[in-house]
Amino acid sequence: MIDVKVIDGKLYSYNMLVAEEKDNDALMDRICCMLKYDMNNYQREILLRAIEEIKIIKKNTKSA
Questions:
Q1: Which helix (H) or strand (E) holds 2?
Q2: Burial (Cβ within 10 Å: 0-12, 13-18, ≥19) of residue 21
Q3: Would you state the pLDDT for residue 17?
Q4: 11 Cβ partners below 8 Å, 6+ apart?
């Protein structure tokens, strides 16, 4: 499930339960395809950081 708010072509917020993908690039491609939107480098970097944080949280939750 991905909940993304895009206003006037800008990514403002997102809440994600990240499905497993083989790597971050594959996940980014899927997200961009779902959005029908091409992110700039800054937005892509923010989203990649969020994905990494979510993966760490998921990993810690599974091991707890």
A1: strand 2-7
A2: middle
A3: 47
A4: 4, 5, 37, 39, 43, 46, 47
Q: Tokens 């707890």 map to which residue?
A: 64
Q: Output the CA–CA distances (angstroms, integers) from residue 33 to 27, 36, 58, 59, 61, in the order listed.
A: 10, 5, 24, 26, 29
User: Residue 43: CB partners within 8 Å, gap ≥ 6?
Assistant: 10, 11
C-beta of residue 2 within 8 angstroms of C-beta of residue 14:
yes
pLDDT at 2 over 60: no
What pLDDT is attached to residue 51? 74
What's the CA gap between 52 and 54, in Å, rounded?
A: 5
- Cα torsion angle, 54, 56, 62, 64, sign: negative
